[in-house]
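lol forgot to send this yesterday, sorry. struct tokens for the thing we talked abt
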């Protein structure tokens, strides 16, 4: 559970959020916790009345809760957005410890690199030729900036990240461990004998301000121009973004999604887990692609699609319902066939049905 460096009065927390306080403002907390694990001196939060029922079993004396939730025998910070404000408080009052400024032992910084004096280069990190690292940014252990890489201010480049040649990273960007930006894209051309040969990739990756990218996600550089992740986009772990993709502002891409080359994701679009696209299509602004959605065509602005191949939401629901009715429909067809004297042998010989037409009879008779 995250602990605060010092005890903090609830009145101070309320002032930080600008929210209403019900109860004793002099009450102090020393950390933040979940409902089930909280100690008396830790702050918890509830999203709604249903969530609040768990408060009965919680030891916490202080809670962050919506104004319409009845909370008894506890000091309450009232918030319209409890989860968001709880995160704000943890960030402000229980921050992650930053490493010391400067270049750590065993780190390598090329003589042609420019590293701000307030930046932190941890042991084992490598900052290559002509790279630039901005103010208060952290390059964690064993991260590598290959060459001509630019990292803005207040970034956190976690352990094992690799930023390939000419990658540009804006301000307040977080790259979780194992992220790779700027590898060659999977572009292949056949040689004279038909053997696939990797096409040269000389573009770059550009990551704008306030982007967060999860662990072991890969973003390939463009063939000639840019693969771009726009301001505020949030990308989960284990995502593959191919060459020449363009991810819109504030888009959300959930784990194990794969985007083929040239995919454009509009502003505020959401792609749920294990979604995938064929190349050179557009997912519109504020569009939604359900988990495991297989997108083979453009998705209009604001549309919601599900399934593989991805279908508009209502059509997908109808298709799923129809699929669940297939066994009963097949049983009815078999009964009708028997009524008119069609045998299994007739079905097996039917060119429209093919040799395998009767293979599933035992499941539906």
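and heres what i got for the seq, position by position
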């Amino acid at each position: 559970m995250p602990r605060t460096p010092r005890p903090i009065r609830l009145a101070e927390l309320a002032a930080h959020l600008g929210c209403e306080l019900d109860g004793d403002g002099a009450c102090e907390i020393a950390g933040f916790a979940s409902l089930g694990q909280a100690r008396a001196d830790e702050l918890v939060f509830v999203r709604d009345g249903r969530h609040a029922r768990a408060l009965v079993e919680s030891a916490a004396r202080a809670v962050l809760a919506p104004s319409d939730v009845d909370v008894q025998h506890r000091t309450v910070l009232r918030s319209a957005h409890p989860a968001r404000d709880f995160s704000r408080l943890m960030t402000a009052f229980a921050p992650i410890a930053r490493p010391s400024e400067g270049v750590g032992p065993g780190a390598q910084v090329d003589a042609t690199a420019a590293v701000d004096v307030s930046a932190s280069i941890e042991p084992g990190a490598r900052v290559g030729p002509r790279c630039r690292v901005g103010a208060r940014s952290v390059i964690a252990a064993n991260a590598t900036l290959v060459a001509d890489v630019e990292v803005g201010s207040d970034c956190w480049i976690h352990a094992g990240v690799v930023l390939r040649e000419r990658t540009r990273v804006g301000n307040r960007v977080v790259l979780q461990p194992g992220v790779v930006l700027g590898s060659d894209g999977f572009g292949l051309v056949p040689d004279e004998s038909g053997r696939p040969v990797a096409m040269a990739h000389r573009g770059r990756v550009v990551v704008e301000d306030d982007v967060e990218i999860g662990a072991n996600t890969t973003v390939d550089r463009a063939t000639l121009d840019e693969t771009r992740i726009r301001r505020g986009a949030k990308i989960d772990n284990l995502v593959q973004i191919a060459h020449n993709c363009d991810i819109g502002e504030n888009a959300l891409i959930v784990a194990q999604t794969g985007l083929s080359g040239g995919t454009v994701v509009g502003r505020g679009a959401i792609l749920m887990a294990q979604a995938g696209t064929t190349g050179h299509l557009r997912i519109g602004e504020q569009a939604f692609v359900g988990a495991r959605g297989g997108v083979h065509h453009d998705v209009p602005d604001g549309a919601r699609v599900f399934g593989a191949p991805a279908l508009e939401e209502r059509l997908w629901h109808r298709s799923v319902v129809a699929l669940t009715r297939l066994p009963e429909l097949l049983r009815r067809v078999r009964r009708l066939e028997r009524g008119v004297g069609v045998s299994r042998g007739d079905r097996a010989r039917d060119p429209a049905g093919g040799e395998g037409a009767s293979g599933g009879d035992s499941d539906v008779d």
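The two ends are 58 Å apart (CA to CA). anyway ping me if u want another try
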